Amino acid sequence: MATSYTRIMKDGLWDNNGVFAMLLGMCPTMAMTTSATNGFGMGLATLVVMAASNFLVAAFRNYITTEVRIPVYILIVAAMVTLVDLTMNAWMHELYKVLGLFIPLIVSNCLPLARLEAFAAKEPVLPSFMDGLFMGIGFTLALTVIGACREIVGSGTLFWDAHLLLGPAFQFLETRILPPDTGILVAILPPGGFLATGLLLVVKRMLDLKAGKQIVMAGAHAV
Amino acid sequence: MSSSNKPSWVHAAVLGIFCLGFGAMLALTNELTSDEIKARRIEDKQNSLAQVIPAAIHDNNPVTDVVTLVNDEGKDITVYRATMGGKVSGVAYEITGSGYAGEIKLMIGVAADGQVLGVRAIAHKETPGLGDKINVEKTDWITRFTGLSLGNPPVDKWKVKKDGGVFDQFSGATITPRGVVLAIRKGLEFFDAHKAQMLEIR
């Protein structure tokens, strides 16, 4: 199959977005988007694991037999997660204190596994790596947007605590949008995750319809 | 992907080799990072202790000066001791309260005379926006306890206002502050009961 990097990019970011088109990885999407910063952090950690495991599976794709491919994929994802977890704990400890909570959760995310099966198992190394990268960026964007919506409605702030994740230089991102104690609490509780994701899904589909695109539940590529 | 119809030992070998390879990689990473992670953990402990034991009252490293005591519930409590010129000037230990959503873990620092040096919430699952006001980053509620002791206010006033005590609850959240106040009171009683062991220099 000829590889189109434009296609891979568009798929990851919009057309076949992990959250808003494939509806995969709902566990971290619901649990970790109580603020834009949290969503961004979770997305970032997932991005690293996806790019690395896509790369590895593509590199070994000719040796992995069909019958045992799923255990091998899970092994690779879990190994990557543990690797990232240990490395960050040792050498990026400040970041780890914020993201540490999210990293083990990546194993329970079926989006990396889906991309291994649908893409990396059939494609060469570089396109697979790019697919992991852009799927990861798309996932990060989706989680940040959901997190931002929930945070604004629920806490009245945007990118609060961003300096804990990105360093003091990013403190300017932290904005108070509504006066304190006016937030609608349900938005940052679990039901708010479903509400925000559902409403944003509607927005995305309306934009797609307006652009004359067909709504198709996607496979390896969006149609 | 390789085609099927291979004898099953091939699949077993493939899976085995991958497990071996990635297992070795993880073992190596663990080996490379374990010392570093241990050092980071001690630093973290130091930082959380520094919040409840002022630097001015000790010349030792409280993280390494520990005694282990058993509380009324039979749980081991690690007591970190701050010493100044060979005398114990304060101690810090973890206390737990029951909140709205499970345990609330707190670190309390107590001076040798029984006054609270400081309390900080370490870990809890309270509702964001309501119960998490016990975090010092959100509100200064928890600093209210600094300088208090079992007699000040009297023991029967160590409650939230709603229960006839002196401490504010949060609007919309009473269970969390109630749990925290009770935990601190029990923590001070623990200090009273084990004062001799905590302050003894061996």
Describe the structure.
The complex is a heterodimer of chains A (223) and B (202). Chain A is mainly alpha-helical. Chain A has one domain (7-222). Helix content of chain A is 62%, strand content 2%. Chain A contains 9 helices and 2 strands, in the order αααααααβαβα. Chain B folds into 2 domains: 3-51; 53-199, no CATH class. Chain B has 2 helices and 5 strands. In chain B, strands 1-2-3-4-5 form a 5-stranded antiparallel β-sheet. In chain B, a hairpin with a 4-residue loop joins strand 4 (102-111) and strand 5 (116-123). The N and C termini of chain B lie far apart (67 Å). Chain A binds chain B through residues 34, 60-69, 71-72, 75-76, 79, 82-83, 86-87, 89-91, 93, 97, 121-122, 154-155, 183, 185, 188-189, and chain B through 1-4, 6, 8, 10-12, 14-15, 18-19, 22, 25-26, 29-30, 32-33, 36-37, 40, 43-44, 127-130.
Summarize the structure.
The complex is a heterodimer of chains A (223) and B (202). Helices cover 62% and strands 2% of the residues of chain A. Chain A is mostly helical and 223 residues long.
